[in-house]
Amino acid sequence: MIPFEDCTTLSLLFHLNSEPWMNTGAYEQSTYSVEYRELLAAEEALNLPPPAPTPLLRLMKTRSSCRQYQRRAMPLETLSSLLGGACGLTRFTEVSPHVKAFFRAAPSAGGLFPLETYLTTQDVEGVPDGLYHYAVRNHSLELIKGGSLFEERHGSLLADPFVQDANLVVFLTAVFMRTQRKYGPRGYRYVLLEAGHVAQNLCLLAAEQGLGSLCIGGFVDSKLNRFLKLDGVREAAVYAVGVGHGNLPGSEVPGRT
Q1: Where would you tag: which of 51, 148, 169, 236 has the fewest CB atoms within 10 A of its CB?
Q2: Which sequence spans correspond to the domains of the chain?
Q3: pTM of the model
Q4: For domain 62-246, which CATH number applies: 3.40.30.10, 2.20.25.90, 3.40.50.800, 3.40.109.10?
């Protein structure tokens, strides 16, 4: 039995043993079956009016997964808007004369913000190609390694062929104990939920800029963590999003979103 006080062993065991399931047969299917649950016959259900066409709803309808990109330059202002909107600080309040509480656009359990943001760039105006860490409080990029890193990154993302021409691949990593110190094993779930919130915000911001995006959950953890220079235990990659000038329409795969 794992002691109740041990808040990390079980989640770490799962995390380290949940590499992508390489069920190639499932990927070779020509059609995709999507299941829906309906508890009542159609005539017994209460029909709702159509959703109001709000600006946010219209934006959400433009978001789709993009798997083919054009090699075109991305303005620096666009990169700033994407990172600042999805991962940056949105406001703060004075908790005491010497303490400020900072907030971001995505909800975070306990306001603990366990996620860190790394990204590879190519063809971004004013930003040399390379691997960077996004420093939230200063809204700045910290260079980790310069140069074109596609070959070095290749093999760590199963979707690498789809995003090789994207301007950005944004990697969301988690420092697990920031959340699990307070919430124990349940905190692992909160971390993953938060990564989903941030990724969706990033996709919507990309759609607002007329850009394509692709959420990537399939990666070889050990290779990707090594590429990002993470230990894979204290801090590890949990999600990735490619962003760039998409060849839309036509780059989506039917049945996928």
Answers
A1: 51
A2: 62-246
A3: 0.90
A4: 3.40.109.10
